[in-house]
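User: Reviewer 2 asked us to show a designed sequence for the structure in our supplementary figure. I'm pasting the structure tokens here. Could you produce the per-position amino acids so we can include them in the response letter?
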């Protein structure tokens, strides 16, 4: 019963105009990036061609060639993350639908299924477009191309240092395509967790205007900018960890702690919300 309701909720969320709008924005950015790559690199010799995965929208390596689309994606991400499912619970509160659903399913089942569904729906929206780009690049560009958009020689010390700073760098060295695929899935899961966090907040704090639900993700993703991080030997920016082929120094411990805190917040917030009076 619980899982059936979760999957029903996911299907309903994906059909809503907000989720479709977020998906179409991501899809349009992916297609624009793909077409731009095809037009720019068509006919290029394979020995000089860049690695197909480094041409993707979620590849930070692209900024060495064209930073505009990557910068736009980074700026839009905190807002797009809320669209697939972030408003769902708040709208049901505003329309009074939560009373009926809580009475039918039980408040605990209703809240927990809504939050889990929001995680899955957001993860799907932020995974599928990039899996499509993954396949398009594999089909359209030579798979044995190995160039880097920084144009550093592969044995140059700066290039090797940058590759050493890739998040999950060991996986990249083993197989760049598996690295990209795992990175896309990780990006989708992190996006789903942020989307679920927005729903948890809306379940704990009633908001009159849904526009305020853009604030949690915006604050969470930009919180490192407010920290005294100038002397840290690693980056605290979210995109340095979630985007692929990023050469900034990173800390796996920092990422694990940040992810764990967010996961605990979602889990604890879900339990607390499920015990609240639905009226």
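Assistant: Here is a per-position design you can include in the supplement:
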């Amino acid at each position: 019963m619980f899982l059936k309701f979760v999957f029903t909720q996911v299907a309903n969320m994906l059909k809503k105009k907000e989720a479709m709008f977020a998906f179409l924005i991501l899809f349009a950015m992916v297609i624009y990036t793909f077409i731009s790559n095809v037009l720019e690199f068509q006919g290029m010799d394979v020995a000089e061609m860049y690695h197909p995965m480094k041409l993707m929208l979620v590849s930070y390596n692209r900024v060495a060639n064209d930073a505009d689309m990557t910068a736009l994606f980074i700026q839009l991400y905190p807002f797009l993350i809320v669209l697939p499912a972030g408003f769902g619970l708040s709208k049901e509160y505003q329309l009074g639908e939560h009373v009926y659903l809580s009475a039918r399913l039980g408040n605990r089942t209703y809240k927990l299924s809504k939050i889990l569904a929001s995680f899955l729906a957001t993860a799907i929206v932020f995974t599928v477009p990039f899996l499509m780009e993954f396949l398009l690049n594999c089909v359209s560009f030579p798979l044995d191309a190995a160039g880097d958009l920084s144009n550093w020689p592969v044995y140059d010390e700066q290039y090797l240092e940058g590759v050493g700073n890739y998040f999950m760098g060991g996986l990249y060295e083993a197989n760049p395509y598996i690295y990209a695929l795992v990175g896309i899935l990780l990006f989708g899961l992190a996006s789903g967790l942020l989307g679920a966090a927005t729903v948890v907040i809306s379940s704990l704090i009633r908001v009159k205007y849904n526009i305020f639900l853009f604030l949690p993700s915006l604050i969470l993703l930009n919180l490192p900018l407010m920290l005294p991080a100038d002397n840290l030997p690693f980056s605290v920016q979210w995109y340095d960890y979630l985007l692929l082929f990023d050469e900034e120094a990173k800390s796996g411990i920092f990422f694990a702690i940040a992810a764990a805190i967010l996961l605990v917040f979602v889990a604890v917030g879900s339990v607390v919300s499920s015990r609240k009076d639905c009226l």
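For the response letter, you might also mention the following. The mean pLDDT is 87. The first helix runs from residue 2 to 15.
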